[in-house]
Amino acid sequence: MMVLQLTNCPPSLRGDLTKWLMEIATGVYVGKVSARVRDNLWDRVKNTCDGGRAVLVYSTNNEQKMDFRIHGETWEPIDFDGIKLMLRPTPARLIAKNNKTPKEQVKQGFSNAANFQKSKRFANRSTNYPDSYVVIDLETTGLDYKSDKIIEIGALKIENNVQTDSFQILINSGIPISNKIALLTGIENHILETDGKRFEDIIPNFLEFVGEFPLAAHNMEFDKKFLNYALAKCNLPPITNRLIDTCDLAKRLHKSLSGYKLEQLAAHFNLESYQGVDLKYKMHPSLGDCYITHLLYQKLLNFEKEY
To answer: CB–CB of 97/88 below 8 Å?
Structure first.
């Protein structure tokens, strides 16, 4: 038995396929044919569906009792210990793949670094929190991710609990900043007009910086909604990285605190400076909040290990 699904493929294919298969819905063909006929049909599909997509699933004598092939899809088939799986790529992986020649494209499957991190997580099941991650923070024109816009992105890369890199960019969304937001963030309209970049121009650099690292943020749901909505506007898939929310973690580990805002937790844990930088007078709000979030995460992680 085989099932073939076509999307945006030429109608002329229908004549070839219906000689051997039954079309049970638009673009969906099923039937039972020999392996030789199946392979010939698949070659015909690949040679004809330029710009279209095709997915073939068929029965075979393996451990999964089936196999599949894809053409024109962003999802990638990978082999994992003899089992064939589908990998849904991150936005950074898609950009890296599209910008490189075939020899340079991202290797399918799990990288050595990913396998190493996976083994570390299994070795330390008590916490299951990574020591390599990227802290992110967004400044926006408001609280509604559908109508408001991102005006600044800050990110701090941490590898083995040590900062190795940072990322900060201002974004000119074309929406004027209110006096309230300007006072809150220290970012004013004339600054964005002079130094701000378009989101679609800077997002590849941000995604490359983030890669497949876990992402940490304070109130991660807020940042995730804004990021994913902005990515969708650029026809990019949503963030699929592992997400860590320091606010949720603080609430779980310290249930008796009076408040869980970032500034309240920073005061509670005396997180006032980082590598000689006075965080009360940080130059860029988003990057300064990343520093504080990183310190908070480390404090909570140490508490979790002792708990």
So the answer is: no
Which option is the CATH number for 2-112: 1.10.357.10, 3.30.70.240, 2.60.200.30, 3.10.290.10? 3.30.70.240
Question: Angle at CA 282, nearest 5°, toward 183 and 250?
Answer: 90
Query: Which residue's structure tokens are 């504080």?
Result: 292
Average pLDDT over all residues of the chain: 83
Q: Does 133-306 match 2-112 at the fold level?
A: no
Angle made by CA atoms 196, 137, 273, in degrees to the nearest 5: 105
Cβ-Cβ contacts under 8 Å for 131 (sequence gap 6 or more): 158, 160, 161, 301
Q: Which CATH number fits domain 133-306: 3.50.30.60, 3.90.1200.10, 3.30.420.10, 3.40.1010.20?
A: 3.30.420.10
Rounded to the nearest 10°, the torsion over CA 219, 225, 226, 227 is: 100
**The two three-digit tokens of residue 237, written as one number:** 């898939």
pLDDT value of position 117 = 53
What confidence tier does 76 reach under pLDDT thresholds 50, 70, 90?
A: confident
pLDDT for 36 equals 82
Indicate whether this model's pTM tops 0.85: no
Strand pairing partners for 159?
162
